[in-house]
Amino acid sequence: MAKPGYRVFDTEVGELRRMSPHFVRVTFRSDDLRELGWDGPDQRIKVVLPLEGSGFDAVPSDADWFSAWRALPDDRRNPIRTYTIRDARPDAGELDVDFVAHGDSGPASRWISAARVGDRMLVIAPDATSDEDSGGWEWHPGAARTLLIAGDETAVPAVSAILEQLPAGARGAAFLEVPEAGDALPLRAPAGVEVRWLPRGERSTDYGARLVEAVTEWADAWVAADPGAATVPATAPAAVRELPALDDDDVLWEVPEAADDGGLYAWLAGEASAITTLRRHLVKGLGVDRRRVAFMGYWKLGRAEG
Ligand SMILES: Cc1cc2nc3c(=O)[nH]c(=O)nc-3n(C[C@H](O)[C@H](O)[C@H](O)COP(=O)(O)OP(=O)(O)OC[C@H]3O[C@@H](n4cnc5c(N)ncnc54)[C@H](O)[C@@H]3O)c2cc1C
C-alpha cells in the first residue's frame, strides 16, 4: 500500500513571537520535522490540541488513526484545527505557523494565548518521504495573466507564502482584511502585485465588510477594462455559469484546476459569508468564469471548526 501523503509529526514549541496585536508566530521544532513536506504555497496542516489533564494520551497511534480518533467519545477526543505552513526549514527540523489570537472562544485560540516554549504539539502535515501529494493546497493559477487574491487574517499566512513564491513579473492585487492597522505584517510581493491591507479598526465585528467593498471595487474596474479575460469561453458547458444556492450547512469550498488560458485567476479565503458574497459578485454579477475562482469560505462566525 502506498504511504499516505501526510502523517502526524510529534513536535514542541521552540519559539514564540508576538508579531502584531493579533498574530503569534510559533516555531515548532523536532527531529521528526526533518521529514516535513511542503507541496504548495497555501499548504494546510492540522494541529491536534492537548486535552486538559490528559494532554495527548488519547490520540490513537493506529495506521488508521483518523477513524479511531473520530470514534472516541467527545471528552476524550483532542480538538483538531486547520492552519497553514507560513514557513518551514525541514533541514533544521523547524516549522512556522502564524496563529490568529481571537480570544478564548476556541481551543486553538485559547492554546496560543497560554502556549510556552517546550509545550508539546502534534501536527498533521505532508510527509516528504511519501511519493503521494498531500492534497492539502489549492493555489493553481495556471497561465493566468492577472491574479486577484483576497483573504482575512486567517488567510494572511497563506497569502504571504503565495506572494513570496510568485515570479517577478506577476501582476494583480492582494487584499488582506485584518483586525487592526498594526496587524499588517511585513511580506514580499512582486512589484506588479499591489498589496492592500484593510484594517477593520472600529468596525471590529464587521467581519469581511472592508474586504467585500475593496475587492468589489477592484473587480468592477478590472472587468470593465478587460471583459474578455474574465468571461466564460463560448464553448464552456452551461453548468459552468450556474451557481447552486448554498444553504448554511454547505461546505463553501470550490477550487478549479489550473486553466491554460491567460485570463484572471481569483483565490479567495476566509470567513464564509464574505467569501461567498465575493464569489457570487465575481461569477454572477460580473460573469467571471467560475473555473477562474478558487473560493474557500472555511470558518464561520459563531461556529466552531469540526
Ligand atoms: C485551509 C485553512 C487554513 C487556515 N490557516 C490558518 C492560519 O494559518 N492561521 C490562523 O489563525 N487560522 C487559520 N485558519 C482558520 C482556523 O482554522 C479557524 O480560525 C479556527 O476556527 C480556529 O480554531 P479555534 O479553536 O480558535 O476556534 P473554533 O473552536 O473553531 O471556533 C470558536 C469560535 O471562534 C470563532 N472564530 C474562529 N476563528 C476566528 C477568528 N480568526 N477570528 C474571530 N473569531 C473566530 C468561531 O466562529 C467560533 O464562534 C485556517 C483554516 C483553514 C480551513
UniProtKB/TrEMBL annotation:
Residues 6-133 form the FAD-binding FR-type domain. It comes from the Bacteria. Pfam families: FAD_binding_9, SIP. InterPro entries: FAD-bd_FR_type, FNR_nucleotide-bd, Riboflavin_synthase-like_b-brl, SIP_FAD-bd, SIP_fam, SIP_rossman_dom. Gene3D superfamilies: Nucleotide-binding domain of ferredoxin-NADP reductase (FNR) module (3.40.50.80), Translation factors (2.40.30.10). GO terms for molecular function: oxidoreductase activity. CDD domains: siderophore_interacting. PANTHER family: FERRIC REDUCTASE, NADPH-DEPENDENT, NADPH-DEPENDENT FERRIC-CHELATE REDUCTASE. This is FAD-binding FR-type domain-containing protein. It comes from Agromyces badenianii.
